[in-house]
Amino acid sequence: MNKEEIITKINGFLVDEFEVEEELIEPQADLKETLDLDSLDYVDLVVEIESNFGFKVSPEDFTEIKTFQDFYDYVIQKVEAQ
């Protein structure tokens, strides 16, 4: 799976599961603010990542993720490391 496919897959489940408008998903946009995430939403996000990409996510991983680009980079790095 290449980077574009990963980003497309991420954006797809964000639109479907978090009901965010696709045009609001921009690389430099704030992830938490745009998705209006609370603690339960983070659990849902982790479940989506694990089921779509097949790797485990630790809560500490999210401390450095601020923007959609950070999120993309994190998932791409984990997928490439598999």
TrEMBL record:
<keyword id="KW-0444">Lipid biosynthesis</keyword>
<dbReference type="Pfam" id="PF00550">
    <property type="entry name" value="PP-binding"/>
</dbReference>
<dbReference type="GO" id="GO:0016020">
    <property type="term" value="C:membrane"/>
</dbReference>
<keyword id="KW-0276">Fatty acid metabolism</keyword>
<dbReference type="GO" id="GO:0009245">
    <property type="term" value="P:lipid A biosynthetic process"/>
</dbReference>
<comment type="function">
    <text>Carrier of the growing fatty acid chain in fatty acid biosynthesis.</text>
</comment>
<feature type="modified residue" description="O-(pantetheine 4'-phosphoryl)serine">
    <location>
        <position position="39"/>
    </location>
</feature>
<feature type="domain" description="Carrier">
    <location>
        <begin position="1"/>
        <end position="79"/>
    </location>
</feature>
<keyword id="KW-0275">Fatty acid biosynthesis</keyword>
<keyword id="KW-0443">Lipid metabolism</keyword>
<dbReference type="GO" id="GO:0000036">
    <property type="term" value="F:acyl carrier activity"/>
</dbReference>
<keyword id="KW-0963">Cytoplasm</keyword>
<protein>
    <recommendedName>
        <fullName>Acyl carrier protein</fullName>
    </recommendedName>
</protein>
<dbReference type="InterPro" id="IPR036736">
    <property type="entry name" value="ACP-like_sf"/>
</dbReference>
<comment type="similarity">
    <text>Belongs to the acyl carrier protein (ACP) family.</text>
</comment>
<dbReference type="InterPro" id="IPR009081">
    <property type="entry name" value="PP-bd_ACP"/>
</dbReference>
<keyword id="KW-0596">Phosphopantetheine</keyword>
<dbReference type="InterPro" id="IPR003231">
    <property type="entry name" value="ACP"/>
</dbReference>
<dbReference type="GO" id="GO:0000035">
    <property type="term" value="F:acyl binding"/>
</dbReference>
<keyword id="KW-0597">Phosphoprotein</keyword>
<dbReference type="GO" id="GO:0005829">
    <property type="term" value="C:cytosol"/>
</dbReference>
<comment type="pathway">
    <text>Lipid metabolism; fatty acid biosynthesis.</text>
</comment>
